[in-house]
Structure formats: structure tokens, C-alpha cells
Amino acid sequence: MNVWDYLVVLITSLLVLLFFMYMFWRVTATRDRERPAEIFTLVRCGDGTEKKRRYQEGDYVGKQTAECEGGVIIGIFKEAPLQT
């Protein structure tokens, strides 16, 4: 191989390295702006009303709660905040 071949390989390697560095920077820049999703529990009371509250350790679907009369957990879900 002559000098020009080495130069082409060197320039190509540097371009690939710069591309991967740019992609890594983009991923880390957007990761800082993301907010984690919050976990909520949906409780149905004995009178048919539903309440949404933050998840508490030990919650599961079908569990009886004392938040309202005849309260039963009917769902647990994540809710992501809106991105602005």
C-alpha cells in the first residue's frame, strides 16, 4: 500500500469515528430531557365512582382498599408526562 491508500483509510476511519461520536451525543442529550413515567392505581368505590391515585407498594388488581366504602383496585398503569 502506498501513502494515498493509508490516507484514505485514515480519513474514512476519522469520519466513522465522528459519526459515532455524534450519534452518542444525540442519544445522551435527549435522555436528559425525558421524564420518567408515573405509576397510578385506579380504585372503584362501592357506589361506582372511580379514583386515580399514585401507586403504593403492595397494590395489586383486586385488592380491597379502605379509601372509600367497598373500594377495589381495578387497574394499575403508567402515565408518561407530556413532552414540551
Topology readout:
Elements: H1 3-33, E1 38-44, E2 50-54, E3 64-65, E4 71-79
Largest sheet: 4 strands, antiparallel
Name the shape in a single word.
rod-shaped
Strand element count: 4
* Overall residue-averaged pLDDT value: 89
SSE sequence, one letter per element: HEEEE
- Rounded to an integer in angstroms, the radius of gyration calculated over CA atoms is 27 Å
What class, by secondary structure content?
alpha+beta
Parts with pLDDT < 50 across at least 5 consecutive residues: none
Strand content: 25-35%
Number of alpha- plus pi-helical segments = 1
Give the N-terminus to C-terminus distance in angstroms: 54 Å
Transmembrane segments: 6-25
Keywords: Membrane, Transmembrane, Transmembrane helix
Structural descriptors:
alpha+beta, 4-stranded antiparallel beta sheet, transmembrane helix, 2 domains, single chain, 84 residues, membrane
Report what the structure shows.
With 84 residues, the chain is α+β, with helices and mostly antiparallel strands. The chain has two domains: 1-34; 38-79. 37% of the residues lie in helices and 27% in strands. The protein contains one helix and four strands, in the order αββββ. It has one helix at residues 3-33, and strands at residues 38-44, 50-54, 64-65, 71-79. A four-stranded antiparallel β-sheet has the order 2-1-4-3, with no helix packed on it. The model has no long low-confidence stretch (mean pLDDT 89). Keywords: Membrane, Transmembrane, Transmembrane helix.
